[in-house]
Predict the 3D structure of the following.
Amino acid sequence: MKKLKEQIALPLYIMRHPFDGFYRMKHMNEGKMSTAFILFFLFWISFVFMQQYGSITVSTSHPQMHNSIRDGASIFAILVLWSLSNWAVTSLTDGEGKFKEIFMGNCYAFTPLILTLLPMTLASHLMTDTESAFFFIVITAAVIYFIFLAYVAMVSVQNYGAGKALGTIFLTIFAMLIIVFLGTVLMVLLQQMYNFAVNIYTELAFR
């Protein structure tokens, strides 16, 4: 129970005191990768629950259109890609953060979404069409606060000023696009090489 309380304490503290909380995560070694993965898992469950069980007043997609494993893998891939790109960019711009710290900071920033998605999904079944606007207001506020926490995490982990942090965000997005482009090109080349090897084998096998 003591260990569980310690894992819960810092994410909740970060919600109330973002700058001090992320400082404690990095410089006082209070952040843990185990907690980061637990927070990601809880966000994944909350997101999937909203997708699958949101009422018809707040959801326009059919539950069978969603695949929980695919959705979770996509979110995790984006999270890792963002953390990797941010680490690459900040390594060239005098950043002080490690990949592990960047990843943890983003996972800790999920806390407001974790605390919002599940209860609001349940509450959506009690809302009329008119009242559903409240659902979107709360979810939007949680998303905005998540973005704010992720921004504070980068400022604290990298020891950047506000302006440099904003510039780094744009460079990180650009780096993500480059990585995706190069990854796509590599996959296409590997596919073509595989098809070429199969064709050669087929020709030799039937001669």
Q: What stands out?
A: DSSP finds eight helices and no strands in the chain.
